[in-house]
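We modelled the chain as a single entity of 75 amino acids. Its sequence is:
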Amino acid sequence: MTIHTLGKFGAVLLLAGAMAGCSSWDNMSHRQKSAVTGAGIGGVAGAVITGGGVLGTVGGAAIGGVVGDQVGKKK
């Protein structure tokens, strides 16, 4: 398994995890919804920027989650 394939697999797992978390979307606070959305967008952006790199995908998701959490705190 090449690193490129592993990166794509990681991105798919991240997206699947985010979608599974959305199954309880109605019970989440605004801040939690913002964190999930930020993590999803950050993960995709990290994957695109690093060409599907695992570290870029996970790092983007982590940073996006933190940013989304802080943005959701404002409301």
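As a brief sanity check on the tokenised model: Residues 39 and 62 are 6 Å apart (CA to CA). The two ends are 44 Å apart (CA to CA).
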